[in-house]
Structures are given as C-alpha cells and as structure tokens.
Write the structure tokens for this entry.
Amino acid sequence: QKEVEQDPGPLSVPEGAIVSLNCTYSNSAFQYFMWYRQYSRKGPELLMYTYSSGNKEDGRFTAQVDKSSKYISLFIRDSQPSDSATYLCATRGTSYGKLTFGQGTILTVHP
Amino acid sequence: GAVVSQHPSRVICKSGTSVKIECRSLDFQATTMFWYRQFPKKSLMLMATSNEGSKATYEQGVEKDKFLINHASLTLSTLTVTSAHPEDSSFYICSARDQGGVTDTQYFGPGTRLTVL
C-alpha cells in the first residue's frame, strides 16, 4: 500500500463546475499537507499549505484536512479552463524530511 | 517570492556524454535542495537530497556515481548525469526548501527535459 493514495483520474468537468480532488494517507505522523499544481512540461507550483486538521481558503481554492480519517481534499470553485493541469497532494511529518506525493490527478476543465 | 530556476530547460545530447543541470533559489537561501525525476503521466520520483556543504543523500536504487550532485552554495545545486544513455532521458525537476517564510516546504523549478540520443 502506498503511503499516499490519489485517484489519477482523468477528471473532466465543464467550466464553472466545483471540482473535488482527494487523497488518503496511511502514516499518522504526517502533519503538514500540501497541494501542488503542475502544468504539462512544467515544474509543480505550490497552491495550498496546511498544518493539521481544518480548512484553508485562498480565492477559489479550499484545502481541507481530516486527520481522524486521514483524508485531504482540494476544492476548486468556479473552475476555469486555465485550471486544467495535474494536481498533486503531498505530505510530510513534523521533523523536516522529504515530501511524500500522491500519484497526481489529471484535471481538464472544458469551456 | 520563493522562486527556483533551472538551467537548461531542455537539452539533447549524444549517448556517452555528460550533462549538467543547475538549480538556483533566486530569492531565498536553501540549505536543502531535492532532485526528482518524472516520467510521462507519472508522479515525482525523488532521486536525492542535496545538502549545502555535505554529500548528497541518494534514494534506494539511484546510482550516485551516475547522478553526481553538488551543492556548493546556499543558492545553487547541480546535477550531473554522467555517461548518459537513452534510458536516462526524462524530465528532471529540482526543488528547494524555504525555511524563512511562513511555510517550510519545497518550491520547485520549471524542470529540465533531457533527451539522450
């Protein structure tokens, strides 16, 4: 079993839809949770960074962490074609170490 | 802030030659940088952790003599692919750890696409 599981999709939605992206993890030591967006042939870009359980909102993006169920989510409101990319969840423990990534979900928002 | 650059963005070389890729943190100092490899439609595969002033730590299965890493300053790490072969063709991405801001996480470079003929 992988430490972080993420459905690779692909996920295709119409413009304006609410997108829900999810990951589950198995290591209870993970305390920090990140979402990265990666456009084709580019490096990942940090979208959201959260610590422990709770919600964090930034514009059209909301990151949600539920440590009791080891479940992390990213919601995108009013999705745009420019949101079409691969979204990677990532986690790490309290003492700094390497990030553990999910497989990435390929998202396409069509006009 | 938190900008990481990589050079070159794309390189094509002949089999048997060596290729050097540079990773720079432009607006922060990074004692730790990471090198990843990514295959098409796959997630990132960590190759090694680069620490300023000390030897890199390689992940299991990564040949340290083939992938030479040097982290000579707080803003620069280099990855040299020695005696490259077609199977080394891939997308190589570096990241740098930023401890100075609100977050303590990794910021990624734009990647280098290596094609070995």
